[in-house]
Amino acid sequence: MLGRDARTEYTLDVDATVIEAEKEAAQWTYKKEKGYQPLLGFLFELGLILGDEFRDGNVPAGVGAVEFLELCQRMMPKGKRIAYYRADSASYQASVVNRCFADHVLFTITADQDSAVKGAIKGIGSGEWAHHEGDREIAETVHTMNGTKEAFRLIVQRWPKLQAELFDADPYCYHVIATNREEPAREVVALHNQRGQAENFIKELKEGFGMNWVPCGESRANAVFFRIGVIAYNLFQAMKLLSLPPWWRTSTIATARWRLYQTAASVVHHGHQVLLKLATSAEKLVLFLGIRKRCLRMACG
User: Fold this and answer.
1) What b/e readout covers 42-67, taking b as 16+ CB neighbours within 10 angstroms?
2) Mapped to the 3 state alphabet, what secondary structure does 202-250 carry?
3) Separation CA 16–CA 87 (nearest Å)
4) Under CATH, to which class is 9-241 assigned?
5) Residues 55/224/52/254 CA torsion (nearest 10 deg)
6) How confident is the model over 226-254, as pLDDT tens digits?
7) What pTM, to 2 d.p., does this model score?
8) Which of 217, 229, 212, 183 is nearest to 84 (CA)?
């Protein structure tokens, strides 16, 4: 897939998801339910799953974050690279930031609002805040973490609390993004917010391909089952991108089952030929012929 794509640089969106499972080997997750918590790395531009790691439910999403980034980097073919890394606060770690700087990878990571980050926010002067959107304001500062080799930006959004608690000295809620990007703060926020598409990819994997459950009592068997689901998901993405018309690229597997797969047909032998007779409209017949031609071109090319 990547070899057929003209791009050379890609965005990696990393996110974990919880699969609830009342299985013998399942562990308790942070949601206080038993299950598993696989970690996934998506290529934003193509919707492909580049890396996946099936994990027990009690393994925090931030464990092995830099190793998972390195795994995804190794998965890229020659001439292709991860140029932009996006993740939530589980990846707000010095090792991840250092790896991005070392590999010249741009990053936006939701910052964990620890005491150091809260101190940096307090250091922003009242005159530095600008209107962002709605009731939100935006500002930025420079920050470092224990263990980071280079400083980076903190893009801070704040908005009034709906109901401030008694004796609460700070009337604002905050959302903080750590980044080494150089665009204006508003553009960085917009770019980071695009990582929400990963939630749609996860929803497709879990609901469309049945990965919202696991069938076995043994974790390793469930890991195999999950990997098969990832392969099926990627094959469907490949089919949409390589053999279907462009307007199919936002379609889900449920749409494809309804509009494409569930087409009645029969194989008949006539005049020393094998024919496939489709019980469908002329429009869908054109679609099938187009798919066949694209597949032939790929097979010959």
Assistant:
1) bbbebbbbbbbbbbebebebbebbbe
2) HHHHHHHCCCCCCCCCCHHHHHHHHHHHHHHHHHHHHHHHHCCCHHHCC
3) 10
4) alpha beta
5) -110
6) 999 999 999 999 999 988 888 888 999 99
7) 0.91
8) 183
With b for 16 or more beta-carbon neighbours within 10 A and e for fewer, the 143-159 pattern comes to bebeebeeebbbbbbbb
The 10s digit of each residue's pLDDT in 51-106 is 999 999 999 999 999 999 999 999 999 999 999 999 999 999 999 999 999 999 99
CATH 3.90.350.10 positions along the chain are: 9-241
What count of residues does the chain have? Answer: 301
Task: Please report, as a single letter, which amino acid is at residue 53.
Answer: E
Q: Please check whether residue 268 is in contact with residue 277, taking contact to mean a CB–CB distance below 8 angstroms.
A: yes
